[in-house]
Amino acid sequence: MTDQQPLYQLRDLSKTYTRGKESISIFKGLDMDIQHGDFIAIMGPSGSGKTTLLNQLGGIDSPSSGQVVFEGKRIDNLSQGALAKWRSRNVGFIFQFYNLMPTLSAAQNVELPLLLTGLSGGERKKRVKTALEIVGIADRAGHKPRQLSGGQQQRVAIARAIVADPKILLADEPTGDLDRTTADEILGMLQQLNTELGKTIVMVTHDPSAAKYAKRELYLDKGEFVERGNRS
Amino acid sequence: MNEATLIRKGLFRKVLRAILMMVSISIAFFIFGVLGAVNKAFNAGVDVAAANRLVIVNAINFTVSMPYAYFGRVQGVDGITHVTHANWFGGYYQQPANFVQTFAVEPETYLDVYPELILPPEQREAWINTRTCLIVGQALATQYGWSLGDRIPLNSNIWQQADGSSDWDFDICGIFTAEDSSVPTNYAMFHYEYFNESLAFARDTIGWMILTTEDVSLNDQVADEIDAMFANSPAETETTTEAAFSQAFVEQLGNINLILTSVIGAAFATILMIVGTTLVLAINERTKEIAVLKTLGFQSGRIFRMILTESFLLSLIGGAIGLGLATALVMAAAEGFQAFLPGFRMPLSVVWQAFALMIAFALVTGFFPAFNAMRIRIVEAFGKL
Amino acid sequence: MKQLFAVIGMNVRSIPQRAGMSIATITSVAFMVAVLLGFLAMANGFEKTINGSGSDDVAVFLRGGSQAEVNSVLAREDARLIEVAPGIATDESGDPIMSAELYVIVDGTKRSSQTEANLPLRGVQQQAVNLRQNFALTGGRMFEPGTAELVVGEGVIREFEGFDLGQTIRLGSNTWTIVGTFSTGGSVFDSEVWADLGVVQNLYQRGSSVQSLRARLTSPDAIEDVRAYVEGEDRLNLDVTSEREYFADSAGGIATLLKFVGWPLSIVMAIGAFAGAWNTMYSSVDSRTREIATLRTIGFSGFTAFMGTLIESLVLALLGGALAILVIYILFNGNSASTLGGGFTQIVFSFEVTLGSVISGLVLALSVGFLGGIIPGIRAARVPLLAVHQN
């Protein structure tokens, strides 16, 4: 892999949903490259297709037409099983409502993606510890999600997203459910992951102040990109 | 943490619900275990029947006797290894409520025909040579606290002695056991000669005969020959296999098998409904969690397996508890039931059937939830918050 | 009160939303009640048959100590001595109303299992029909004394093959012709086959012996006079009992056994149904947490939430119980069955769903509904008001 090759190449990407007899086009003919080490904020009004685009990147939804190329290989035509395997190795997800398993402790939640690797129990434990330390919540390792605040839960979710050392972090409104101060902490952490650990991040948000933390802001409207700013 | 942790956490996501489901399942298997053991005990006569053993009774009915002379004539039939005869004594001990199943038999040949009965050599000797000897089955001896050397009177509610009395004195000179605990030992036997000579009426008749053939393949031939021999006489005979005879006897009580099967069926239909619907609901509640697992990269097949394993655990834990309780109950009741339901115990076959049922039950209740879970579409699952 | 009805209404109307679990609860309660009613119907039917069999003014004479007809042997002379006993009723022509009887156990083929089962072939004298309450010929005619003719009880015809009017049947080495059918109103005698005493004695080598004597008493109290006479007569060694007593002694066991099996079984099943009801009600409360919190916020009391849940549970249980009663009544009431009775012969009886057992079934169902609803009900009453914001 060379630096010349972008991490993602989206080519002529279209997504159409059919609801009853009506077909709704979310976006049409999108082209986009995402470079290694980038931190992109995708903004846009509700229904503009932000989350749908993120789903295409994460391989949990497939395009109606066009290609999603990851490290030079198409992923849009992979089978469900192959996609699952690809996700476990390459993608870390961060959700608006954290989506932690209520029955598992913080540490167990973080360990979850490692069950899909061949790592030994001891190695997994070490990695979980490191990830929790990175997000600054190692002291809450044994707590269940409902014993944690929203901000703490999102930290656990971020630890889960990075624990398997994926190549891309995808965050969908990661601060949508948090107050301003906590949101700033979380966004600062994402920024740190990007600058210090070199994680490539794509974040969907409708909050302009959140978008400021990214290197690039893309504005998605009526299925087309409008670039707003580039701070890199 | 490993996959087992995930499965356990999934199953006990709502502890109370999981416990309630296990209680329902254990109840059904408890009923299955106990009734299965009862059914088996009722059919013990059929199960312990030797394939080459035939029973000869009066064709009118097995309660009607036949002339003693028949015994001699049957002995001459080809293809027979041993033949013996017995009479129903209708005995009781001290008072009519203490019923004692007693037969007047031909001592030596009876043991030949029933080799599964075990009598120590010196007791066997005493049994054959002592006219007033009574040999008592272990279960019966335990019930009345009798031991070797006791002298006891038994009354008959049918027979009378020539002197008008209806009690016979016996010396217990043998206590027999059986090779296998499913063979009943809840009865006693004494010499036909002692019985016949003292009778006031109906002398020189025998109740029924039992014989063994040289080989199972000769059964029909031997039976036909015997029945033909006595055809058109006042006492025609009917010769059947021991198993068929026992089966018919159990059927006299009613269709016990049907009753027990219906109850077990009702119990299982009940838990199938309860557990089946609850599991579907429980997995529906977890749609989003399962979608997260899939997002993280868990394969559909693995999800299917994990959910199905939950239903297997549920079924096996609940089933094992129920079966364990059933076994405990059967063991506790076995002694008290020895008198009228000999061989009441938890048969291995019922245990295996129960485990097969647990697996089937887990598959039936777990398949749909697991299938639903496997088919959860990530995007849709996140769509419905 | 008004708010209570409103909440109960909402609960009950929400049942179809949890159709699967609600049906599961109804079914489990139904199966439990059905098992109870099934066993009680057998026990009650059997009991009714036995209790309907004995009269107070018929005396039964058996050999001393024999306990049951099947074990008894009486000689001809015994009958002659009893004829002159005090307290025995006579007919218009002055003859004692008395019948010496003997039964031979013969094989009949059960329709249900196609296996052979014991039937009593009872040899009777002419007065026998006057010694059974409600005796009536329902088809054909009475047997001709001295011939190999049979009259057959209706229970036998229901449960056994080959006893239809006009047929001939082989019992042992003898062939009989069926010339009549009779009913005694569902008593034990409906499970019997009758023939002339002399013919039975002759064909089955019983000499002149009989098993029992039945005699009509001038009044139920006259049995004491008869008993005194028998005890004072050295040539007689007999037990005298009234017919009602005789049947009560010989057959209580089976009905008791059926009840002792039916009750524990259905109680064990009730535990399973209870777990199911509890589960269903928990889900009901769970799925309506927000609705309950909203009502509480508006000002409805915790008690109404409790009652709403409890009554929903009782309604489900009641539906299950009612379903079971209906099904058991339609499928089983009046159904015929037979089992081995005290005389070592088959007794045919009909399933009898009684009001008492229906009440027992409903009480059991409601108990399950009550216990299954009470804890989820308490939970409903304690739903925090903040749950109104729950998503």
Question: Can you tell me about this structure?
Answer:
The complex is a heterotrimer of chains A (232), B (385) and C (391). Chain A is an alpha/beta fold and 232 residues long. Chain A is 32% helix and 28% strand. Chain A has a single domain, classed as Rossmann fold (3-Layer(aba) Sandwich), CATH 3.40.50.300. Chain A has seven helices and ten strands. A six-stranded mixed beta sheet of chain A has the order 6-7-8-3-9-10. Chain A has a four-stranded antiparallel beta sheet with strand order 2-1-4-5. The relative contact order of chain A is 0.19. In chain B, helix 2 runs antiparallel to helix 14 (348-374). The model of chain B has no long low-confidence stretch (mean pLDDT 91). With 385 residues, chain B is an alpha+beta fold. In chain B, strands 1, 3, 4, 5, 6, 7, 8, 9, 10, 11, 13 and 14 form a twelve-stranded mixed beta sheet that branches. In chain C, 48% of the residues lie in helices and 20% in strands. Chain C is built from ten helices and 13 strands. Chain C has helices at residues 2-13, 19-51, 76-83, 154-159, 197-203, 223-232, 243-287, 289-298, 302-332, 355-381, and strands at residues 58-63, 98-110, 116-124, 136-140, 149-153, 160-161, 168-171, 174-183, 193-196, 212-216, 238-242, 336-340, 346-350. In chain C, strands 1, 2, 3, 4, 5, 6, 7, 8, 9, 10 and 11 form an eleven-stranded mixed beta sheet that branches. In chain C, helix 1 crosses helix 9 and helix 2 runs antiparallel to helix 7. The longest helix of chain C has 45 residues, at 243-287. Chains in contact: A-B, B-C. At the B-C interface, helix 2, helix 10 and helix 11 of B face helix 2, strand 2, strand 3, helix 7 and strand 12 of C.
